[in-house]
């Protein structure tokens, strides 16, 4: 585990920019990773290098060919990182934009009168796209309700609402509100057991930073991530699509290959930073295992990240040292339950008697960065059924520490004493 290996957490933190200080605020603890993770220092360096190059990828000159090699290498790196032996990777405006494009293409190519199925726990990125394009294409949208108590949706819940005429399905890999991860492979299998030809598209934006990506095992047709939530930077999204979805009629330039999905000149620097991220997972896997195969090192990194983040969330919920955990604070309620093995580095809470906006403000004044989730178009689907107008989201990554958790617990405990 990361915290059991001497010097490893220090080495991890040293690879990230602004790990304990904000250039606007000064010293701070970063528990807002679900809103955007910290950026690798190497990514910052790489971005600056490629931002200064004027050449276009693929042109018949050394720079153009070199840049194209960078893009090709990044796509190959993504195939290893996400374990995709088929299909293609491509870049777009954002993870959300790519979900819209994939879902739109699937819907407009669906048989007349077919159904689109998705769940109530999904981020509006996929829910909005599915509802919008189901309506445009004359399809019926079917919503699978999530379990309010656990903050999850299960394969069994999908199976209960599946019918053979489902042509498009959406799944969220992890909820950015509850922090719970879904069993994508099991949900996909439940969908295909009834509608084997359904096009299945996954929102992996919240899950990706926590490791354990395995596209070959999911049996899906589309998967989207936002690299700024996986230690890269803002300004682009990465999508993977199956060979089948690649060839479906979609927006492309007249005369271009039928499987062309990238529109316009791509930023080689964004692709290059993806390779930096994959190299980081590879390095971490080598630190926590003796694996020599690159994919197996990445898998080891994912397991270590999962174990360490579980350690951090357990410390936050159950307490550490002499400090009581969130479950022992009478003024704190935990969304999704205190004992939930599906949790991925995120704990959302409500503090009794203190408005969530004030909690976030008071924590921020102590140098602890968290975020409010409101009953709005982003989080209302989760909060409304719980009777909540808002909550505080505390989201961690594997570069956070138990000492930082201790400071948070101290601050939250004091809010119940005043």
UniProtKB/TrEMBL annotation:
Residues 29-248, 324-408 form the Aminotransferase class V domain. Keywords: Pyridoxal phosphate. It holds the Pfam family Aminotran_5. Gene3D superfamilies: Aspartate Aminotransferase, domain 1, Type I PLP-dependent aspartate aminotransferase-like (Major domain). This is NifS.
């Amino acid at each position: 585990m990361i915290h059991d290996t001497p010097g490893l957490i220090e080495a991890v933190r040293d690879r990230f920019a602004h790990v304990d200080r904000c250039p606007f605020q000064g010293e701070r603890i970063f528990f807002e990773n679900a809103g955007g993770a910290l950026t690798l220092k190497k990514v910052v360096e790489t971005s600056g290098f490629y931002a200064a190059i004027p050449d276009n990828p693929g042109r018949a000159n050394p720079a153009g060919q070199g840049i194209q090699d960078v893009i090709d290498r990044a796509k190959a790196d993504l195939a290893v990182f996400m374990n995709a032996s088929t299909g293609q990777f491509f870049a777009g405006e954002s993870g959300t934009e790519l979900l819209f494009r994939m879902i739109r293409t699937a819907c407009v190519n669906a048989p007349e009168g077919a159904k689109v199925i998705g769940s109530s726990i999904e981020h509006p990125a996929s829910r909005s796209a599915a509802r919008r394009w189901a309506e445009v294409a004359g399809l019926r949208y079917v919503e699978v309700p999530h379990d309010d108590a656990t903050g999850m949706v299960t394969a069994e819940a999908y199976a209960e609402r599946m019918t053979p005429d489902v042509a498009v399905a959406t799944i969220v890999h992890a909820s950015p509100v509850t922090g719970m991860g879904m069993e994508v492979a099991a949900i996909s299998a439940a969908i295909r057991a009834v509608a084997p030809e359904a096009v299945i598209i996954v929102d992996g934006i919240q899950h990706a930073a926590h490791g354990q990506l395995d596209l070959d095992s999911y049996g899906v047709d589309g998967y989207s991530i936002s690299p700024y939530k996986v230690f890269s930077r803002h300004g682009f999204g990465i999508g993977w699509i199956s060979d089948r979805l690649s060839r479906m009629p979609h927006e492309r330039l007249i005369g271009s290959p039928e499987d062309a999905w990238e529109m316009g000149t791509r930023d080689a620097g964004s692709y290059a930073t993806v390779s930096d991220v994959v190299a980081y997972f590879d390095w971490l896997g080598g630190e926590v295992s003796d694996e020599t195969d690159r994919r197996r090192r990445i898998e080891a990194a994912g397991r270590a990240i999962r174990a360490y983040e579980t350690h951090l969330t357990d410390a936050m919920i159950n307490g550490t040292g002499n400090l009581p955990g969130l479950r022992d604070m009478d003024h704190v309620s935990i969304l999704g339950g205190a004992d939930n093995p599906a949790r991925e580095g995120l704990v959302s809470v409500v503090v009794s008697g203190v408005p969530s906006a004030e909690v976030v403000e008071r924590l921020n004044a102590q140098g602890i960065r968290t975020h409010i989730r409101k009953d709005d178009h982003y989080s209302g689907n989760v909060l409304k059924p719980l009777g909540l107008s808002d909550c505080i989201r505390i989201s961690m990554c594997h570069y956070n520490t138990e000492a930082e958790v201790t400071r948070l617990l101290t601050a939250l405990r004091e809010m119940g004493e005043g």
